[in-house]
Amino acid sequence: MADLKAKFLQVYAVLKSELLEDPAFEFADDSLQWVDRMLDYNVPGGKLNRGLSVIDSYKLLKEGKELTEEEIFLASALGWCIEWLQAYFLVLDDIMDSSHTRRGQPCWFRLPKVGLIAVNDGVLLRNHIPRILKNHFRGKPYYVDLLDLFNEVEFQTASGQMIDLITTLQGEKDLSKYTLSLHRRIVQYKTAYYSFYLPVACALLMAGEDLEKHVDVKHVLVEMGTYFQVQDDYLDCFGNPETIGKIGTDIEDFKCSWLVVKALEICNGEQKKVLEENYGKPDPSNVAKVKALYHEINLQGVFAEYESKSYEKLTTAIEAHPSKAVQAVLKSFLGKIYKRQK
After folding, report:
1. CA neighbours within 13 Å on the CB side: how many for 249?
2. What pLDDT score was predicted for residue 171?
3. Which one of 100, 133, 269, 312 counts the least CB within 10 Å of its CB?
4. Alpha-carbon distances, residue 61 vs 52, 139, 332 (angstroms)
5. SS3 state at 106
6. What is the pLDDT of residues 152-187, one digit of tens each?
7. pTM above the 0.85 mark?
8. Beta strand spans in the chain (E)
9. How far is CA 16 from the centre of its chain?
10. Under DSSP, is residue 185 helix (H, G, I), strand (E, B) or coil?
11. How far apart, in whole angstroms, are the C-alpha atoms of residue 55 and residue 80?
12. CA 191 to chain centre
């Protein structure tokens, strides 16, 4: 695994140097240094799960055949396109959420010389993706499908982000609209498509598959993405900030989190009142009251039950798939996220 990651990071260096020598723009020293620093700060800093899983998935689809250097490079390049997409979303997301830290360091826009220049940096990150695809996939029979795939998933993610933002509008704090179906819609569009479906779809295209014939795979991965986000919501409140690399703010931010949705289902009238009075307030004492209520109604136990049920349901769906290679891809995804702590 460490070897794979080292190889993957080498590909990042190649892609970065190509972008810094893009013939479509004449770089001067200052712009070169800016983009160089901006990329290093925002693109390779995470766990790289999405990117690495393109290579993993492609390997499994090739059923143990030794990959050529070119195949490893191309699968890595697609993996990095997903990491670039992620960086673009996160840079802008952090501005919208007024976040302070990301991946254990200050958010990019919080750096003294960056500020709102980060908006344009987000746009640049987004524009790097078609440049990478053009450089390495233009001659491939699946080039147009790749462009379509990235465009569609970006549209779905931005639309999910929109539902999330307009639901948490300040001044309109109404917990009654927070339901499991709304939570599911947000999660499906905002997270599941780009984090779960996109890496596997990239691998399927590289393996010469037609995505139209793999709608069932998309369904399973979107389910998995939903489960992943519920874990994220859980860790935001109950996880260790040291381990997850950020301080959770879902309660303060009035987020449509799975925890608050479940709490609203379970609470009696008195408890609901405590939620309504304290949820979405920045004061630590309000947050503490919400957390105390979560403990009181045993949300940890409710989550543990949800986790085991989801795992069973997903395993059953995966085992129903006719292709053993596709099953292996889906099982490897599930294995990585089941009972994760970060």
Report:
1. 16
2. 65
3. 269
4. 14, 22, 12
5. strand
6. 999 999 999 999 888 877 667 889 889 999 999 999
7. yes
8. 101-102, 105-106
9. 22
10. helix
11. 11
12. 5
